[in-house]
Amino acid sequence: MKKFGLILLLSLGLVACTQQESTENEEVEVLPLEVNLAVPANGEKNEEITLTAEVYYGDEKVTDATEVLFEIWKDGEKEESQKVEGKHSENGIYEVMYTFEEDGVYFVQSHVTAKDQHNMPKKQIVIGNPEEAGSTDESHNDLDESHEESHHHGDETV
Question: Which of 37, 62, 94, 127 would bridge 121 by S-S if both were Cys, CB 3.0 to 4.6 A apart?
């Protein structure tokens, strides 16, 4: 009889643990990592410009992102891009000060890793007078590609 009581107690303990684990798993909700990349539309050569990424996880401002990098490149020169680490300033806002040394069309893409997710929004900035600097038309192609990518990603989530 004692063996039966012990087996019953162990069985009840296992059932309780299993129910608790399944309840905990059901409560875990994965929210999307949102990044609001702020880049001015225009700037001047040799002028320090602030680039910011505001990071959210649901309604929560992320102050402990694993990584926030700002990748910057001149139109047509992606292979020569520079990556600059963003620093948390306040309330989920990460920023970097950057000085563009030549006129031209540039792209800024933030690479944000937080909450086991990664988000990489991209924006364009025009520095000075790119026509005088001999700019190419690649920027239009690059924007078209990112526009198509955003639709492609949107289709996947629907």
Answer: 37
